[in-house]
Amino acid sequence: MQLSTKHLLGIRDLQKKDIQLILDTAKQFKEVLQRPIKKVPSLRDVTIVNLFYENSTRTRISFELAEKRLSADTINFSTSGSSVSKGETLLDTVNNILSMKVDMVVMRHSATGAPHFLAQHIPAAIVNAGDGINEHPTQALLDALSIQEKLGGLSGKKVAIIGDIMHSRVALSNIYLLTKMGAEVTVAGPPTLIPKYLKDSFGVNVTYNVREALEWCDVANVLRIQLERQNQVLFSSLREYNRAYGITKSLLSSLQKDVIIMHPGPINRGVELDSDVADSGQSIILDQVENGVAVRMAVLYLLSGRREANA
């Protein structure tokens, strides 16, 4: 089997069978990562450039590790110290890189639609590692794999996405994926951080009460407050946010069930999530990090068009 698309620009563009293929392939690569020798020759002679116009730690390291595990040749690019600071355009930058015979581009950019723009102008396969407040497809895929491992599947599962929904590309990609795969989704947070169109356009439930969301869900995916994307004051203070919408140990203990806790990182401890929750047995945050490498290996391998799996 192969993907129905040449690029991974967003979950919105994927068919259900594409999502399942990526998750199934990621499981195979996760087995590879348990071996003493974790490297396979699946992408030998494939050159990948990591084009990060925005700061990143987890996503960038995860992609780099995935590429090395697949034996790809990797080039890392960041805007600091590059010709971008001298005014070079995005297309000129990429065309210069492509002249060095690059096969794939992993791109993170603060502008919504930047990977889609590239996909229209260059022949290399593009992987969206996050564009503006639009999508972050590999994060949604690794979240889905983590839920699937813990609960045995996605269909019929109840997932609450809690926090800054308005500015989160993770939220949008998760909503696309979960609804396509048959899960139920509720978004929760302050009214100022939840877009009004979500309920009608995406068929998700909306609540402004975190306890109500937690009592309903099997899994809570908690998002950080993205102050860097907010151009106006949308809530009174971080302290007040934590009191009204933060996930605390006492809140979880008061529920009649155990809720699985997820977070895409970085965590603002003491704001959206207390440390004794992030580090508790209910948290699968480190499983998400581990699954990120396997999912990104699967995406890169499938987009490369290689037919013989070496896993």
Can you walk me through this structure?
Helix content is 40%, strand content 14%. It contains 12 helices and 9 strands. A 5-stranded parallel sheet has the order 7-6-5-8-9, with helices on both faces. The radius of gyration is 19 Å and the shape is globular. The two termini are 15 Å apart.
Write out the strand line-up for the largest beta sheet, numbering strands in chain order. Answer: 7-6-5-8-9
H/E element string?
A: HEHEHEHEHEHEHEHEHHEHH
Poorly predicted segments: 229-233
Helix content: 25-40%
Radius of gyration, in Å, reads: 19 Å
Number of E strands: 9
The chain-level structural class is alpha/beta
Q: Round the mean pLDDT to the nearest integer and report it.
A: 91
Question: How many distinct helices?
Answer: 12
Q: How far is the N terminus from the C terminus? A: 15 Å
Strand content: 5-15%
Overall spatial form: globular
Biggest pleated sheet:
5 strands, parallel
Q: What is the compact description of this entry?
A:
With 311 residues, the chain is an alpha/beta fold. Helix content is 40%, strand content 14%. The two termini are 15 Å apart.
Descriptive labels:
single chain, 311 residues, alpha/beta, four-stranded parallel β-sheet, 12 helices, globular
Write the layout of secondary structure elements.
Blueprint: H1 16-33, E1 47-52, H2 58-69, E2 73-78, H3 90-98, E3 104-109, H4 114-121, E4 125-131, H5 137-151, E5 158-162, H6 169-180, E6 184-188, H7 198-202, E7 205-207, H8 210-216, E8 219-222, H9 238-245, H10 249-253, E9 260-262, H11 275-278, H12 285-304
Parallel strand pairs: 1-2, 1-3, 3-4, 5-6, 5-8, 6-7, 8-9
Helix pairs in contact: 1-5, 1-12, 2-12, 5-6, 5-12
